[in-house]
Amino acid sequence: MEYERVYHSSQVQGLEVINPSQSTHGGSWVYATWDIVMSAAFLGTRGGDLTCCVGRDSETGKPYICERFEGAFALRYGGVQGSIYVLPGDKFVAGKTPWEEEVVCDEAVALIREIRVENAQNYLLALADEGRLIVKFYPDRVDGIPEDDGDLVYRAAVWHKQFGDKIIERVKQYQPHLLDRVLRAIEEDRY
User: Fold this and answer.
1) What is the phi/psi pair of residue 113, to 5°?
2) Could you tell me which residues are beta bridge partners of residue 85?
């Protein structure tokens, strides 16, 4: 599939070129999404999936952000400044990473324009008010996120194989009630 435009979010404002960065999937790429609303969900990255899960709702087709504990949305996005960079999509390809929303390019990309965001939390809530984004605040969940948080146990165990013990520290910080389950999954090499 060819894309006319793609979108890259960063907390660094004022860039003129987006350079490739080292990938956890192998290679060095510029990451982007084909959906500007999905890109906006990555203006804040604190805690990753351990604070807020980001995805696409299967019923409506809209991007969602699902808070994983009370206050996680504000923790991840509150007061965060950044920019959404609009990039030409002709050199970006899908299918290089496990996430179908993501497209990548292996060379530096000059931007078409920059959309500055002064507060990611306010920006995302405005997108939700416009009906372009679903925001679920804890304890509400989108379909597919299990009540027992088994998805986070799985992800933490898999990430531990990739990134080592720093993942354990992140679980302690953001999801301490899952620590025993994560440690058991790692010990049993379950995933």
Assistant:
1) -165, 165
2) 8, 114
Structure-model confidence comparison of residues 118 and 23, the more confident one = 118
Q: What are phi and psi of 95, to 5 degrees?
A: 85, 5
Residue pair 150/177 in contact (Cβ under 8 Å)? The answer is no
What pLDDT, on the 0 to 100 scale, is given for residue 2? 87
Query: How many whole angstroms separate alpha carbon 42 and alpha carbon 12?
Result: 12
Distance CA 122, CA 116 (A): 13
Other C-beta atoms lying within 10 Å of the C-beta of residue 24: 9
> Which residues pair with residue 53 across a beta bridge?
66
Please give the Cα distance from 90 to 137 (Å, whole number).
36
Tell whether the model's pLDDT for residue 90 goes beyond 80: yes
Q: Residues of the chain with pLDDT > 90: what percent?
A: 91
| Residue given tokens 């400044």 in the structure block | 81
Nearest to 92 by CA among 3, 183, 189: 3
Which residue's structure tokens are 């604070």?
Answer: 51
Query: What is the identity of the amino acid at 107?
Result: E
Cα(25)–Cα(118) distance, integer angstroms? 31
